[in-house]
Amino acid sequence: MVSLTKRVLFEVIPNPPDETTLTLSSTTNKGHYISVRPFVNAEGKEFPFEWAFGGTSDHIELKKINERANSLNFNFKFDTNVKLNVPETHRGVIKTVFKTWDSGLVEETGSVFPWGTEGTEVKFRELWQPVDPTRLEFVELNNEKDVDQAANSIALSVDNEEYEGLVIVVGRWIQGILFKKGVNTLDGINLFRSQIDEKNSIVSLVKFGADADKFPQEVLLNEGSITTSKGLEWSVIESNL
Amino acid sequence: MVSLTKRVLFEVIPNPPDETTLTLSSTTNKGHYISVRPFVNAEGKEFPFEWAFGGTSDHIELKKINERANSLNFNFKFDTNVKLNVPETHRGVIKTVFKTWDSGLVEETGSVFPWGTEGTEVKFRELWQPVDPTRLEFVELNNEKDVDQAANSIALSVDNEEYEGLVIVVGRWIQGILFKKGVNTLDGINLFRSQIDEKNSIVSLVKFGADADKFPQEVLLNEGSITTSKGLEWSVIESNL
After folding, report:
1. Do residues A24 and A118 share a domain?
2. Same domain, yes or no, for B105 and B58?
3. What is the C-alpha separation between A143 and A211, in angstroms, rounded?
4. Of the residues B146, B181, B215, which one is the last residue of a structural domain?
5. Res B100 pLDDT > 90
6. The complex's ipTM?
7. A-chain residues near B20 (CB < 8 A)
8. Residues A21 and A133 placed together within one structural domain of the fold
9. Which Gene3D superfamilies match (chains A, B)?
10. Does A21 touch chain B (CB under 8 A)?
């Protein structure tokens, strides 16, 4: 089951909640995932993102708690905070619980340790609205299980001497992260979010980084195929086409 | 400007938030309003609503705080808690602040006094997602100001010896409250929520009460006109048709 969820709020407990980003998290049928978190008002910000991360299914551990709740332990392969070595941000596994409310929204709670595992625990809450990934607008799903089972579920990956990256396609929504290896500054980070419109053209919504043109120009591909963009070869590691 | 907002969460501070209802609040151009709050899982509930209330624009006082925030003081004409005399619920004016977040969601904070004005203050938070009232699905608006200026904005009212009621139409969404005067039990309460579909037929979504058939069967009417449903005469007190 693919999933596209739009964040409704972020809360560092016990501070009041807020939402300053347009955050979308995409997950494929096989559990590959990316979350891209651009600020709505990015004026004056050199890096116009709160955060971005992603990984393949081997970077996430899911356990069912009950019909309504799962525990998810994330150990991101890609993490802009780690890449940039942002001080006072978490390293390593993040333990979370995802709980579905009657209304269909999904509450995520967990803890991070910005000052190391021996440091102060910071509890957080995020709230997620499942949206229909096959639509270009944000059309709410009553429950994330109501998602179209036939929606595109595609993942592309690159890992060569110079670059490592991941692109996730769910329905009409594409999100991507591309890191230049060994470059731990903004020059090493590329992010994008696009939509596949009714004519199957890719329309860019968010694009960041010197190498952003290396994100794949075509994504509706079969598993095992290769697509090259500005010299960078991407492998399709999952596709339901 | 009409408004249709879907509640995302309800929080009695400092308890954790939750959302067990599908709550919609509708407000017309002139400021007449209704909020209907049915539980998603109403099994076993004699009254399957958390609450419902409404009023005309003279039952609300709005003051601008800044570009992002307004204070709103509600003094409902219709309030199911008051009608049923539910113990430990608020009476009289409720003072609230509505603040628009960067993401377009609207945070409402305020206090109620369930044990009277001298009793304990209970702080609450609600969070609202503006949705497009001209659509049958829940299509999110980036900002409530993005609403279609031509959307239907209609209010119907009844106040005779036996009944008092209000119906609010914004876009394709209709919500209504009808009280039987002097009957302070569930027998005196009627609530409904409907949609006007593409064929201009009214499709019922929520319908409660012995007199629910008295809600108007036609609502796309001019200001000043009268429509009668099962003997009950409704006056159109606002219409932009």
Report:
1. yes
2. yes
3. 37
4. B146
5. yes
6. 0.95
7. 101-103
8. yes
9. Protein HRI1, C-terminal domain (2.40.128.310), Protein HRI1, N-terminal domain (2.40.128.320)
10. yes
**Cα of B34 to nearest chain A Cα, Å:** 20
What single-letter DSSP state applies at residue A117?
Answer: T
DSSP output for B39-108: BSS-TT-SS-EEEEEEE-GGGEEEEEEETTEEEEEE--SEEHHHHHT-TT---S-EEEEEEE-TTS-EEE
Same domain, B62 and B128: yes
Are both A62 and A106 inside the same structural domain? yes
CB of A40 within 8 Å of a chain B CB? The answer is yes
Q: In terms of domains, do B20 and B115 share one?
A: yes
Q: Where are the beta strands (DSSP E) in A84-188?
A: 94-100, 106-112, 122-130, 153-159, 163-170, 173-180
B118, B146, B174 - which closes a domain: B146
Contacts of B139 in chain A (CB under 8 A): 137-140
Write out the residue range of the structural domain in which residue A164 sits.
Answer: 153-239
Are A135 and A199 found together in one domain? Answer: no
Please give the tally of structural domains in chain A: 2
Mean pLDDT of A169-183: 98
Q: What is the CATH number of the domain that holds B11?
A: 2.40.128.320
Residues A63 and A142 in one domain: yes
CA distance B57 to B76: 10
How do residues A55-108 score in pLDDT, each as one tens digit?
999 888 999 999 999 999 999 999 999 999 999 999 999 999 999 999 999 999
Residues facing residue B190 across a β-bridge: B178
Interface of B with A in 107-136 (CB under 8 A): 107, 125, 127, 129, 131
Specify the pLDDT at position B235: 98
Tell whether A9 lies on the interface with B, counting CB pairs under 8 A.
Answer: yes
CATH number at residue A201: 2.40.128.310
Q: Which residue of B has its CA nearest to A104?
A: B19
Structure confidence by residue, pLDDT tens digits, B175-215: 999 999 999 999 999 999 999 999 999 999 999 999 999 99
The answer to whether A140 faces chain B, any CB pair under 8 Å, is: yes
Q: What distance lies between CA A84 and its chain's CA centroid?
A: 17
